[in-house]
Amino acid sequence: MYTVDLRVDGRNVVLSNEASVRRAIIRGDLTRQTRVIVDANGHEDFVGEAANHSWLRDLLDEVAPVPGAEPSLEPVVRQTDRPDQLAEDDREIHPSPEEGEDKGDAGRTANASLQARKDVDGGHRETAASLSAQAMPLGPRDEKAPGSWGWIVIIIGVLVFLGIVVASNFGGGTSNITVPEAPEARPEPELPVLQAGMFHEWSADENEGIIYKVGDLTVQLFTLHNDGLSAPAVRITDADGQTYQVMGTGGGMSVRARFAVGDLDGGQRSDDLILTSFTGGAHCCTDIAVATKVQGAWRTVDFGMWDGEGMLEFPSDLGGDASPEFEFVDNAFLYAFASYAGSYAPSVIMKLQNGEAVDVSSDAAYRQVHINRMVELERVCRGGSNSACAAYVASAARVGQMSPAWSVMLSNYRGDDDWQYPTGCAILTEDECPTSFVVRFNSLPESLQYFLGQRSYASKAYIPPPNSAGKPSFDCSGVTGGVLKVVCEYSEISDIDRQMAVAYTRALAFSHDRISLQREQQAFISRRDALPNDPYEIIAAYKERLSELQEG
Q: Residues 426, 437: contact at Cβ < 8 Å?
């Protein structure tokens, strides 16, 4: 069986079975010239006029034959097991010439009247005059013909007969005439309705091809097959008749997905769709795609791959602007400081804006979300969980409370943990760090500081680049004069500047008051830049600051 999608007067009508196709033909929604799209098992099978598709053409010929075709004039032969009965019936309808001659005018009159009834029963529209003419005697009058009173009786009888025929045609009595009635127009069967603003499970084994009504959309989920892989897909139709298709990610033997329809862009209409599909594998991953309209055109917005189930509830308004947000957890923290089962992570908040997925985690509107997360994580951190401490500090950094949270972490993290902490890289790269440039940290605070800097929770931690001998911790290419030019020109000063940067980074990782340490470092930089361009004074200032950092 086919699923037929056709566009009629700017509307999309989805016909999913033969009965609905027949009804569309009867209503006139589907004609031979209608342009249709025929899908078979989720694949486009035919595009063109309905008359050019064999299955549709057969139904059109059956339900709505081409106007002007000549009806069959072949006599109807009734089947009977009794030849004598067939002969008797034939004699009744077609009297023999002898019977007609013996009965004279009366016989001919009876034949004419019988023929008139046959003509009426056969559906012929005949006038009263023609019927009267057929009922009149056919031969010349003889001595057996009725007299004047007889003619009056015959005329009265004919008029009564005609009155009965007319009355039966206009509802005045019973009649053998059968007037075919136009088929009753039946509406398309109502679609199953699902609630908007919540997720619904879908399984190809149980729900393949079913069309649902959800919010302002009709939704049909089905399976796509490509190169031996199967993936869920959804075809949506909006209130304007536009259709659009979104494909999920395949994985596993049985194709499953979750979907929801609601308002994601603050448009006050439930016409945005979320499709989540599982890739398979341990703890990974849920692919999240959103179908939305931007300036009247549909598009798919990729919200990324997220660990585990990804989303359990429809997005809610977290920022108070009547537009919902997606709340995830930062998957980078999973397996980073503990096993998967023992991992904790800060919240990540994303939003659909102008047809794009935007990370709004640092916006002040979501401060309370991160504070609530801090409260949850601090309790676990104080219980000695390194992973919870890392997530707690990251959540605190979102709301400007990293320094006090760092002190809590320093007081509660487990230094004897044998877990391999996240490593650093001595070169800047977006790819995996080459083995020769990997930097391994000996403590959780140093590893966490670098980890948070790489993910924009805090300032980047300094790691000396390769072949850095004779080079300071900053880029000399933009220096034009002053103390910094002296630092760049003298390799001895460049080396001590680099040593100071390493010492400051380590001191910051173990400071219970990061804000005070940062202010002290900024004060040193200001004093250094105010020095005269005397190499000896500059070296003396660097050595003094380096000693303070190493002793602290």
A: yes
- Which pLDDT value is given to residue 546? 96
3-state secondary structure 225-242: EECCEEEEEEEEECCCCC
The residue among 315, 276, 287 whose CA lies nearest residue 196 is 315
Alpha carbon 454 to its chain's center: 34
Could you give the angle at the alpha carbon of 176 between the alpha carbons of 172 and 180, nearest 5°? 90
Q: Which two tokens stand for residue 408?
A: 């809590």
Q: Over the chain, what is the mean pLDDT?
A: 79
Instruction: State the Cα–Cα distance between residues 155 and 442, nearest whole angstrom.
Output: 126
Tell me the mean pLDDT in the region 229-237: 90
Q: Which of 400, 335, 356 is nearest to 374 (CA)?
A: 400
- Phi, psi dihedrals of residue 385, rounded to the nearest 5°: -90, 115
Cis peptide before 285 (omega within 30 of 0): yes
- Report yes or no: 328 and 350 within 8 Å, Cβ to Cβ: yes
Per-residue confidence (pLDDT) for residue 47, from 0 to 100: 77
Average pLDDT of span 381-400: 97
Amino acid at 546: L
Residue 185, helix vs strand vs coil: coil
**C-alpha 353, offset from chain centre:** 18
Residues 259 and 202: beta-carbon distance below 8 Å: yes
Quote the CA–CA distance of 24 and 187 in Å, as a whole number. 9
**Number of CB atoms found within 10 A of residue 451's CB:** 25
Taking a C-beta distance cutoff of 8 angstroms, is the pair 422, 452 a contact?
no
- Best CA proximity match to 36, nearest among 12, 17, 60, 71: 12
Residues 6+ apart with CB under 8 A from 328: 306, 310, 311, 347, 348, 349, 350
Token pair belonging to 165: 């025929």
> What per-residue confidence (pLDDT) applies to 363?
95
Q: What are phi and psi of 171, to 5 degrees?
A: 85, 10
State phi, psi for 348 to the nearest 5 degrees.
-120, 130
pLDDT tens-digit map of 72-112: 333 333 333 333 433 333 333 334 434 444 444 434 433 43
The kind and range of the H/E element at 370 are helix 367-381
- State the pLDDT confidence band at 176, using cuts at 50, 70 and 90: very low
Residues 6+ apart with CB under 8 A from 77: none
Higher pLDDT, 133 or 456: 456
- For strands 286-294 and 272-278, give the pairing: antiparallel
pLDDT on residue 246: 93
Asked whether the predicted pLDDT for residue 359 surpasses 90, the reply is yes
272 phi, psi to nearest 5 deg: -110, 140
What secondary structure does DSSP assign to 292-345, as a single string?
EEETTEEEEEEEEEESTT--SS--B-SSSSSS-BEEEE-GGGTTTSS-STT---
Q: Which of 7-16, 29-38, 302-311, 464-473 has the lowest mean pLDDT?
A: 7-16
In degrees and rounded to multiples of 5, residue 312 shows phi and psi of: -110, -30
- For 256, other C-beta atoms within 10 Å of its C-beta total 18
